[in-house]
Amino acid sequence: MKQRVLLTGGAGYIGSHTYVALIEAGYDVLILDNFSNAARDVPTRLAEITGQSAAVVEADILDRASLDRVFADNKIDAVIHFAAFKSVAESVKKPLVYMQNNVVGLVNLMQSMDQADVRRLVFSSSATVYGNAADVPTPETASLGYGNPYGHSKLVCEQIIEQTIASDPRWSVGVLRYFNPVGAHPSGIIGEDPSGIPDNLMPYVAKVAAGQLPVLSVFGDDYPTPDGTGVRDYIHVVDLAKGHVNSLSALERDGQGHVVNLGTGRGYSVFELIATYARASNRDIPYKIAPRRDGDAASSYADPSLAKTVLGFEAEFDLFDMCRTSWVWMQTAAERAE
Ligand code: UFG
Fold it and tell me: Which of 33, 120, 327, 330 is 20 to 30 Å from 143 by CA-CA measure?
C-alpha cells in the first residue's frame, strides 16, 4: 500500500517542489492549501510535470473543523507542514498575524493529527532559529535565538514540537532547518512566485535580469567577508525537496525524530550570486551599493554533516544550476502570462 502524505501549503514554492519529489518516490499525496500565497493553477502545473492529477483540498490551517474533516475523510499516514508566513519584514509589522498563522496553525494541525492517530510529521523550520550570532558553519547544536517575529514564531514552533514529543513518545517528527532555498524545477513549470517586490535576493535579481525591476540594491559591501557583501548558503529547491523525502523515510524507518540543517555547507556572496546569475541568464544585472539591512548577519552557512549521517542527504546542485533554473522559470512564467 502506498503511504499517503498530507502537504499543508503544498501549492507553495517549497511545497510544490516537494510534491513532485514525493510522487517520484512513489507516495500518494494530498495537498492542503488556502491559496493565500500560491497560484490557483499550481495543481494543473503539477499534473503537467507528474502526468497525474493532483489531489487538493482548499482549507485553512486556522480552521480546526476543516482540518478534522480532512483527517476523517482521508487515511493519512504522515504530514509535511509547509503552510506558514515567511516574510521577515512583514512579520515586524504584523507580529500577531505571524504568531497566529505560524504558531496557532501548528497547534491546530498537531491537535487534529493527534485526534486522528497520525503522529508522523515533517516540519519546515529555518536557519532563522539560530538568530544572528551563530558560529559558521552552523551545527544543529548551536545556540538558538531570534531577531524578529518570524524567527520567533519558528523557534516557538520547534519548542512546541519538542515538548509534545516529550509528552507522548508516539510522535515522530523531523524538523528541517532550511538555509536559503532558491532555484526552480528544471522544467520551468513551477518556481518561486513572490507577489509584489521580493524581499529576498535571488527573486529580486531574477526580476532585474528580466527587466521587471530597474536595479538591485546590494545591502552593504563592508561586511567582514571576502568581498564585503553578505554570504549565504543557497540551496536548490529540488535538493531541499529531496531532503523532505529522506526525512519522511528516516521517520518511517527508525520511528525516531531528528532536527537537521538543510544546506550545502558552502556560502556564496551577493556579488558571486549576481555574477553567476548574469552568466546563467546572459543578461546585465545593474546594481548599486546601499546601506546594510537591519538585522542581517555577515555570513550564514550550514554544517550539513548531520543531514548526511541521519538522512543520507547531500545537496547536488551548485549556484549555477540554481540561477539557471530560476532563469528558465522566469522565462516560462513570462510566456504563460502572455
Ligand atoms: N540582499 C541584498 N539585496 C536584496 C536582498 C538581499 O543585498 O535586495 C542580501 C542580504 O543583505 C543578504 C543576502 O542578500 O546578505 C541574502 O538575503 P535574503 O533576504 O535573500 O535572505 P536572508 O538570508 O536574509 O533570509 C533568509 C530567509 C529568511 C530567514 C533567514 C535566516 O529569507 O526567511 O534566511 O535563515 F529568516
Answer: 120
